[in-house]
Amino acid sequence: MALQRSSFPFMGNSITSVEIMTALYYGEFNNSPIFKVDPANPDWDAQDYFVVSRSVSSVVQYAILSDKDFFHSSEMDFFGNLGSKLISRSNGKVPGVSVSSIDFAHAVSGALGLALSLKMDRKPNRVFVLLDVSELQNGQLWEVVLYAVQYNLNNLIFIVDDCGFQADGPVRSSVDIGYLQSKFDSFGWQVVRVNDGHDFDQLLDAYLKVFTVNRRPACIWCNTVAGKGVDFAERKHGYFNAVLSQPELELIISNLSKTT
């Protein structure tokens, strides 16, 4: 079948989260899954929850949910199309998606409520939240940071994808938010740093560490590379919202085929 050029932008920042999500959804400790879900029962009472606040990475979650048979893989052909459930942001109507994402940092409030309700019911389920580093410029997020400590939500785990870019350029060129890892420390969160957010061993080690945190929320801070794995797009802001040409699309597919 001939490759079809999509009018939906290739987002160099979206694929920075591929390894983060893959390690979470497919990783295991002692033959037990890190992240507990059941495709045959999306409303399983014992499941963990994953909230993609970083909306540009929703396509990565959809691809994983498709691979795990939450829905048929043919649905991915309609990603971003009018009328499709697989919109360019997280859609709570899709099996396996915990919270819809309206805008940057808004989904974290839903994650907070979910984690708090689980804690009140004394349930062991965990709530993971994928964040973009630029979302930390949003005041609403810091309200969640405060409340999570107030209620000892050790079932709430933030995963910050820090590739250094946002829509209008480098993060520091917009609002320099400083050394925010230390700010999470000062608010009372446990911070686990991942120097290479594309290294599975480092990611699995980070997930294991946050599972041992007592009586406080945790933040896994991942340093990533925009456009990782696509040589001509790596670290280039011009590919943040670029529509790929047919030759570029064919080159990516060819390179991926060599690695599988």
Can you give a write-up of this model?
With 260 residues, this protein is α/β, with parallel strands linked by helices. The chain has a single domain, classed as Thiamin diphosphate (ThDP)-binding fold, Pyr/PP domains (Rossmann fold, 3-Layer(aba) Sandwich). The protein has eight helices and nine strands. Strands 3-4-5-9-8 form a five-stranded parallel β-sheet, with helices on both faces. Strand 6 and strand 7 form a beta hairpin. Helix 3 packs parallel to helix 4. 38% of the residues are buried.
Strand order across the largest sheet = 3-4-5-9-8
Helical percentage: 25-40%
Residue stretches low in confidence (pLDDT < 50, at least 5 long) are 1-7
Quickly give the structural class. Answer: alpha/beta
| Mean of pLDDT | 85
CATH architecture: 3-Layer(aba) Sandwich
Measured on Cα atoms, how large is the radius of gyration?
18 Å
What does the main sheet amount to? 5 strands, parallel
The end-to-end span amounts to 19 Å
CATH superfamily: Thiamin diphosphate (ThDP)-binding fold, Pyr/PP domains
Give a short synopsis of this structure:
With 260 residues, the protein is α/β, with parallel strands linked by helices. The protein has eight helices and nine strands. It has helices spanning 18-26, 58-67, 107-120, 139-150, 171-174, 180-187, 200-210, 246-259, and strands at residues 28-29, 32-33, 49-52, 127-132, 156-162, 165-166, 169-170, 190-194, 218-223.
